[in-house]
């Protein structure tokens, strides 16, 4: 429709089919009228070129047709993949995603979530930087919130959680089985929580396996992760293996190893954590963990849409188990 073209009104559609505007509105929304009437109204609306006014529809229904998505950081390639898939899944359900980037900053994430609420999104899918933040229950009291990765402090209508305890255990046991005893663990920014106690789990598993582990936080950005990895690999007693809580961080380890002339896996084994498609293309391909992203996204989108449509507000929780994908980046210690 050109800017100057006259918008077809719902009353014109009603006149064409001999119904009231209210009945036409019901038919277009698929409620309170027969399927035959719905089909007749939609056919007439299509022939007349009728397009629902989103502002008017929001005023009538109280919904905007939008869902906010807040990942951890779009600097992490796997987070990019996840939010892109979620956006496509929402679009398939005739919802639009508003995707914002907190860049791993809990204060920024809180501010962006507040902005999304004030813009009247119908729901929010969030991978929380700080799941223990008291802000989440406050937000969830007025908005359908679904978390991915970690449990929130309270109030979420749905949680799609990663079994980090088993993931960490599997990663460290894999390296232990290859003879590695001195490890570095590179984790992204963010505070450990009751459901994601990264440092606590690593420390417990290190003690159980009698491993010497240096746990260090690093940003997702390639340059920053490379700098942190380079410092670790140049230490007086460098690790023989590195476990990264993000494949994006592992790419920094590859870059640092190349700069220092260290061969992977002959001189350094590397394990990632989220099996980004690029990881299988590295030389050598990166050993990592598959978390079934498609299931994660479908489950989270289903939860938030169910809450928006009030198909039940009972809290749901789904735990995703990791699958280790062994590739060429890990080998027995020489």
- What is the CATH architecture annotation of the largest domain? 3-Layer(aba) Sandwich
Strand content: 15-25%
CATH superfamily of the largest domain: Response regulator
How are helices and strands ordered from N to C? HHHHEHEHEHEEHEHEHEHEEHEE
Total domains, how many?
Answer: 2
* Approximate shape: elongated
Q: Which spans have pLDDT < 50 for at least 5 consecutive residues?
A: 191-195
Return the CATH topology of the largest domain.
Rossmann fold
Query: What integer is the average pLDDT?
Result: 89
Fraction of residues in helix: 40-55%
Largest sheet: 6 strands, parallel
**CA distance, first residue to last residue:** 69 Å
* Strand runs, count: 12
Number of helices: 12
Overall radius of gyration: 25 Å
CATH C-level category of the largest domain: Alpha Beta
What does this structure look like?
By secondary structure, the chain is an alpha/beta fold. Helices cover 43% and strands 16% of the residues. The strands form three sheets. A six-stranded parallel beta sheet has the order 2-1-3-4-5-11, sandwiched between helices. A four-stranded parallel beta sheet has the order 7-6-8-9, with helices on both faces. The protein is elongated. The chain contains twelve helices and twelve strands. It has two domains: 10-52, no CATH class; 61-334, Rossmann fold.
């Amino acid at each position: 429709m050109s800017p100057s073209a006259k918008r077809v009104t719902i009353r014109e559609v009603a006149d064409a089919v001999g119904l009231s505007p209210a009945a036409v509105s019901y038919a277009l929304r698929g409620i309170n009228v027969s399927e035959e009437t719905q089909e007749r109204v939609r056919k007439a609306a299509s022939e007349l070129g009728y397009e629902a006014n989103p502002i008017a529809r929001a005023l009538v229904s109280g919904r905007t047709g939008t869902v906010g998505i807040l990942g951890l950081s779009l600097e992490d390639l796997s987070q990019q993949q996840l939010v892109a898939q979620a956006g496509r899944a929402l679009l398939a359900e005739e919802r639009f995603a508003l995707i914002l980037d907190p860049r791993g900053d809990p204060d920024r994430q809180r501010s962006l979530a507040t902005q999304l609420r004030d813009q009247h999104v119908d729901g929010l899918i969030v991978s929380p930087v700080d799941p223990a933040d008291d802000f989440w229950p406050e937000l969830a009291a007025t908005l359908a919130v679904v978390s991915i990765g970690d449990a929130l402090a309270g109030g979420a209508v749905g949680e799609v959680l990663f079994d980090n305890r088993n993931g960490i255990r599997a990663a460290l046991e894999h390296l232990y089985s290859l003879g590695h005893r001195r490890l570095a663990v590179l984790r992204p920014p963010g505070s450990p929580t009751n459901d994601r106690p990264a440092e606590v789990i690593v420390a417990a598993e290190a003690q159980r396996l009698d491993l010497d582990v240096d746990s260090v936080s690093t940003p997702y950005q390639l340059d920053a992760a490379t700098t942190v990895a380079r410092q670790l690999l140049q230490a007086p007693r460098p690790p023989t293996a590195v476990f990264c809580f993000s494949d994006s961080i592992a790419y920094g380890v590859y870059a640092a190893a190349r700069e220092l002339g260290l061969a992977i896996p002959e001189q350094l084994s590397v394990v990632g954590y989220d099996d980004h498609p690029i990881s299988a293309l590295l030389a050598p391909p990166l050993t990592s963990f598959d978390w079934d992203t498609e299931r994660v996204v479908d489950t989270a989108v289903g939860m938030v849409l169910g809450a928006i449509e009030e198909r039940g507000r009972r809290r749901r929780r789904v735990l995703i188990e990791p699958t280790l994908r062994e590739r060429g980046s890990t080998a027995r210690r020489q």
